[in-house]
Amino acid sequence: MDRRPPTGRPEDGRRREIGRAVRGKSGGRAVDGEEHRWLTSAEQRAWRAHLAVHKLLAHRLDRELQPFGLSLNDYEILVNLSESPGRRMRMSDLADATIQSRSRLSHQISRMEAADLVARETCADDRRGTFAVLTEHGWSTIQKVAPHHVAGVRRHFIDLLTDDQLHELAAAYGPVVEHLKSLR
């Protein structure tokens, strides 16, 4: 007897098996030599809520920066540079601060250089090192855009939560941030 799913595609049966396992209706399996623990319903709701908030909020804030000719990544770089001494950072430090590969950051900085937001300068004490430097145009751009961005952060996130919820959220994310930083 053919035990294929109604679609006739063998992979559909595997998808159902994974779906049952994700919902906790299948026994745990060993992963890397350890018994696998599926997420409980509460853990699944929390995880999916986190993913949804992260994606939806980043998408919304990115769209709100588009009229200024910036992406959320551009804005993050401008903020990091604006808060650094001399409005400059070594490219390697900026890549670490923005959690980007050096190659990706280099391409990003090239695009931002073309828009006169940043410039590259050679490090005087290390000829292999390069600084990303906020230009005057970049500085005026961040000053103009920041109030709009902060208003969006408030409107779409901060103002939707109570002070207690914000405190709890910061406390909950603290150990996760520290754990992930330790893995870098």
Polypeptide structure, described:
The chain is globular and about 55 Å long. It has helices at residues 10-22, 41-65, 72-82, 91-97, 102-114, 136-156, 163-182; strands at residues 30-31, 34-35, 88-90, 118-122, 130-134. With 184 residues, it is mainly alpha-helical. It is built from seven helices and five strands, in the order αββααβααββαα. The strands form two sheets. Strands 3-5-4 form a three-stranded antiparallel β-sheet. Helix content is 60%, strand content 9%.
Summarize the structure.
Helix content is 60%, strand content 9%. The protein is built from seven helices and five strands. The radius of gyration is 23 Å and the shape is globular.
The main β sheet shows up as: 3 strands, antiparallel
The Cα radius of gyration reads 23 Å
Q: What general outline do the C-alpha atoms trace?
A: globular
Mean pLDDT: 88
Count helical runs: 7
Q: What oligomeric state do these chains adopt?
A: single chain
Helix content: 55-70%
| Main structural class | mainly alpha
Beta strand count: 5
Question: What fraction of the residues are assigned to beta strands by DSSP?
Answer: 5-15%
SSE order, one letter for each helix or strand:
HEEHHEHHEEHH
Q: Numbering strands along the chain, what is their spatial order in the largest sheet?
A: 3-5-4
**Could you tell me how far the N terminus lies from the C terminus, measured between alpha carbons in angstroms?**
52 Å
Unreliable sequence segments: 1-5
